[in-house]
Amino acid sequence: MGTVIQYTIIALVFLVALVFLVKRFMPSKNKQHGCNKGCGCAMTNMENKGTF
User: Fold this and answer.
1) 27/21 Cα distance (integer angstroms)
2) Are 34 and 43 in contact (CB under 8 A)?
3) What mean pLDDT is reported for the chain?
4) pTM of the model
C-alpha cells in the first residue's frame, strides 16, 4: 500500500512540473502584445509617456 502512495505522489509532482513547463513555453493567447502592423498603438503611447 505504501508504494501506491509513493507512485501517486511522484505522478502528481511530474504532472505539476509538466503543466508548468507547457505554460511557460507555450504562447498565451490572453496576453496583450504590441502589434507589428505600424498602427502606432503600442510604441506611440510608450514614446509619449517617455518610458521604454
Assistant:
1) 12
2) yes
3) 76
4) 0.50
